[in-house]
Every structure is written in structure tokens, then in C-alpha cells.
Design a protein that fits this description.
Rossmann fold; binds adenosine-5'-diphosphate; alpha/beta; eight-stranded mixed sheet; disordered N terminus; binds magnesium ion
Length: 364
């Protein structure tokens, strides 16, 4: 689906013990820090479904269902799963752009679960979002100068107009745009350039050098394949330079493998598998992850992957299947167990960091 992303500035990891068929070269990501930047505990987000829509009155749609996770300083957590499984909702809840229905959220150690928007404002400087479609998220009537300047003004970051102008020029240069684009409007740019403007806007309020958290919600999905790698590399450079943490949402599993330290797989609002990226791509324990990843073409000709095809559509999150919500589509379904008892996310081998929510994980 995407072009191979090649990168020369970062050394490739080679371990003596890696099997020869370990897959394409994956560049080593810098180790994230120990400090936890974002923490979610049993977070759920329910949306009311309009009365009368469903027989029997008011129902709720469980977009995110009991998700717990942590993201450390300088870490990228990849988030994958079929459309509608709750990825964007989770990203927005973590930033408190949506209020969680249940659960708790901490940002840099501060509980932000019920903090007022006013009190969140100083934290907002270090919590940002980059959207899939940079065009629809940039006001078409505003110039680049106004778009980036607005973010600076909201937080009162500049000492006067001249200072603001210099800040904008610096930000534009940082994302690879020339300062003379300031007077232009979003429609005058290509998709990749627009995404750079979106990134400059997100960075405008970031306090450089102190880290921060950016939800990257399908940031390259709307871009030409040839441009995707440039944006990914820009995001990685910024991460290294500024110590940023990312929740990187994408349906492109190759890109997620490339950018992520760890990957979470979501199905119907729940995280069903969570593991270091390399471990997950080498060994998928959840039948859903296997199915999802088997849809990725394997680059080397000698290596074959069992293509497990999923039966049926994703069930509705309004009335999801009982217990393990994947059970109606699962090749390993055990009646009386999978449809009765919710599988909890558990670490398969203590200390491995590889968690799976399945009663009958593969390869065990
Ligand atoms: N504001 C909303 N009101 C009602 N339902 C919503 C709202 N936002 C998302 N949903 C529903 O929540 C589920 C998860 O959506 P979303 O988080 O956008 O999934 P993804 O990003 O994985 O495609 C979907 O069923 C979607 O229709
Ligand atoms: Mg989405």
C-alpha cells in the first residue's frame, strides 16, 4: 500500500541472533525515556444513540471500552484496527477533547479526568493533535501566518508582532517550509505541504525541549505515497529533537511498524493485543491481530504467510457480542467460554511487555 520508507540518518539494528528472514530492515528507534507522559486507566467512551433509533428506547454506543495504556517520553505508541473500532475516539479522549465516560487519565502525572477546560489550558500547550486531512482542519480563509499565529496568540506566547513573525518563520522552517509561504492560503499548497502547516500549528504552542504529546490521527493516510515518507521522517525528527510522545493512529500497518516502539491493536473499542512493535510483527498471539496483519503483503518472496480471512463484518458497537466481542468471527472460538467470559489483557510471558486479551492465544 505504501512506498517503502528508507532512511539513511538512523543506523539499522542488527542483532546476531535475528533469523535471516526477520523481515525488511527496520531502523532502530531511539529508546524512549522512563517518564510516563500519558496514562489511561480503564477508559471508556459511550455515545448516546438517539431515542427511537433502536427499539426499546435509549441505547449507547461503546466507542472505547475499558482501555488502559501508558505512553512514555519520546515514545510512539502505534494504534491499529479496522475503521470504526474507536481509534480516533480514544485519541480525543486522551487529550480531553472528548470527556471520558468512565476511567481516569493522567497527563505528565496530573489527573486530567475531570479538570476544567480552563485549567487544562496550560497543559494544552503540550498536548496536540494532527489530523488525517490537513485541508479540512485548516481554515481556508486564513493565511498560513494567521493559522500558525492564532495558536501562538491563544497562548500568549509572543512578545509583540515582530516576535510572533519570527516565531512563525522559525516554525515554518522547522517543518520544511519557506518563510515566504506566510501570506498564502491552504488551497495553494499540496497535501504534504498542508500537513506540514498542520504540524507547524501543533508545534507552535509546544514548549520546545520539554517534551509533549501529539495524537497523530492517520496523519499520512490522505497523502500521496511519495509524500508519506517525508511526513513520517519529519515527525520522527521532531520526536527526537523535542522528546515528543506520539499516539500514531494508522491503518497502514507497515508504517506503524516503522514508526512505533509499541503497538496496540483495537477491536470494537478494546485493546486486544499490545506489544513492542518488533515482537508483535514477529509473533501475533491474538487471532484478530493475525488476521489483520496477514493482510499485509510480505516483502520477501521466499516467505509465506497464512492469510487468515475474517468472516463477517465488524459487529455494531451499539450491541456488541457478549464476552470476547471477537468471538463470532474467531477461528479459535470455544463455545461456553469465549462467549461467556471476557478475556482480560494479560502479559503472556512476565516481563515481555507482550499483552493479549484472548482465552486461546495463538502460539502458546
Ligand atoms: N460523536 C459521535 N457520536 C456518536 N458516535 C460516534 C461519535 N464519534 C464516533 N462515533 C462512533 O464510535 C465508533 C468509533 O469511532 P472512531 O473512534 O471514529 O473509530 P476509528 O477512528 O477507529 O475509525 C464508531 O462506531 C463511530 O460511529
Ligand atoms: Mg479514525
Amino acid at each position: 500500500m505504501s512506498a517503502p520508507i528508507s532512511r539513511v540518518s538512523r543506523p539499522t539494528v542488527t542483532t546476531g541472533t535475528a533469523p535471516a528472514q526477520a523481515g525488511p530492515e527496520v531502523a532502530a528507534l531511539p529508546e524512549p525515556g522512563e517518564r510516563v507522559v500519558v496514562r489511561a486507566e480503564s477508559v471508556s467512551k459511550l455515545f448516546p444513540v438517539e431515542e427511537g433509533w433502536f427499539r426499546g428506547g435509549k441505547r449507547e454506543l461503546r466507542a472505547v471500552d475499558g482501555v488502559s495504556l501508558e505512553i512514555r517520553a519520546g515514545e510512539t505508541l502505534g494504534l491499529v484496527g479496522e475503521s470504526g473500532c474507536g481509534k480516533s475516539t480514544l485519541g480525543r479522549v486522551l487529550l480531553r477533547l472528548l470527556d471520558p465516560t468512565y476511567g481516569r487519565i493522567w497527563f505528565e502525572g496530573t489527573d486530567i479526568t475531570v479538570t476544567s477546560q480552563r485549567d487544562l489550558r496550560p497543559l494544552r500547550r503540550r498536548m496536540q493533535i494532527i489530523f488525517q486531512d490537513p485541508y479540512s482542519s485548516l481554515n481556508p480563509r486564513m493565511t498560513v501566518r494567521q493559522i500558525v499565529g492564532e495558536a501562538i496568540q491563544i497562548h500568549g506566547l509572543a512578545k509583540g508582532a515582530k516576535d510572533e513573525e519570527q516565531m512563525i518563520a522559525r516554525l515554518l522552517s522547522r517543518v520544511g517550509l519557506r518563510a515566504d509561504v506566510m501570506t498564502r492560503y491552504p488551497h495553494e499548497f499540496s497535501g504534504g505541504q498542508r500537513q506540514r502547516i498542520g504540524i507547524a500549528r501543533a508545534l507552535a504552542v509546544m514548549e520546545t525541549g520539554t517534551g509533549g504529546f501529539i495524537v497523530c490521527d492517520e496523519p499520512i493516510s490522505a497523502l500521496d505515497v511519495s509524500i508519506q515518507a517525508q511526513i513520517v521522517n519529519l515527525l520522527q525528527d521532531l520526536q527526537e529533537e523535542l522528546g515528543l510522545s506520539y499516539l500514531f493512529i494508522s491503518h497502514d500497518l507497515k508504517v506503524v511498524e516503522y514508526v512505533s516502539h509499541r503497538v496496540a491493536v483495537m477491536y470494537l473499542g478494546r485493546v486486544v493485543e499490545l506489544a513492542p512493535a518488533r515482537a508483535l510483527y514477529e509473533k501475533r498471539h491474538h487471532p484478530y491481530t493475525r488476521a489483520l496483519l496477514s493482510a499485509v503483503p510480505v516483502p520477501e518472496p521466499g516467505r509465506r504467510t497464512l492469510r487468515v480471512l475474517l468472516e463477517g463484518d465488524v459487529p455494531s458497537p451499539i450491541d456488541p457480542p457478549k464476552a470476547c466481542s471477537f468471538h463470532p468471527r474467531c477461528p479459535k472460538f470455544h463455545k461456553g467460554h469465549c462467549d461467556v467470559e471476557i478475556p482480560l489483557l494479560r502479559e503472556l510471558v512476565p516481563g515481555s511487555g507482550h499483552f493479549v486479551a484472548c482465552h486461546y492465544p495463538e502460539g502458546t
